[in-house]
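Homework help board

Subject: predicted structure for assignment chain

Our instructor gave us this sequence and asked us to write out the predicted structure in token form, then describe one feature. I got the tokens but I'm not sure how to describe them. Can anyone check?
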Amino acid sequence: MNKKQIHNLIILDESGSMESIKQATISGFNELVQTIKGSTELYPDQEHFISLTTFNGLGINTKLSRQPVADLEQIDERIYQPNSLTPLLDAIGQSVIKLKYELDEKREHNVLVTILTDGEENASKEFSGEQVRRIIEEQKKLGWTFTYIGANHDVVKTASSISITNTMVFESTVKGTKKMFEKERSSRLSWLKKLDDNEDAQQNYYDEESK
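My token output:
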């Protein structure tokens, strides 16, 4: 019997302002991967894949593309080097469309898209906010879950403008970043349990009462 495919798409800000929390971000990502790896023991019928897109004014880069989590090694400074501006909308639009067309529609799968940024959009050239909103709404109809983690801007307002209701605000310090990743790992495990229990997992991702 085919396992249920879980695609974890992480869209990670690599702009210059992330430099101060670079090491905490690298460590947090690696710990998140370990959490996903460990979840396969709890839910053996789930098969996990990770895609990682980073973005800054120098480009939008696919660092990992649907890589089986079991084969994934830790990332380090060679992969994550913060610099330049924040083309947030282009990163979301490109990443979501790329994964959409790569997935086999005949296979059962669930998708969790996690967007992490410490600042506002300021450099996109390809996608507008309205275009990204429509893209996200179309994928939500197919059961995709979207979350938005942000600092130093109106996170709820920005996420809402592109049809994302699962939001978390964090403090862009080393301590704040560590705390944010701890909550993200806990919320992700709760999301996976909902999938295993065949519950609606699209809403209340960061809702403590749902855990």
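Reply (TA_rk): Your tokens look well-formed. For the description, you could write something like this. The first strand starts at residue 4 and ends at 13. That's the kind of observation they're looking for.
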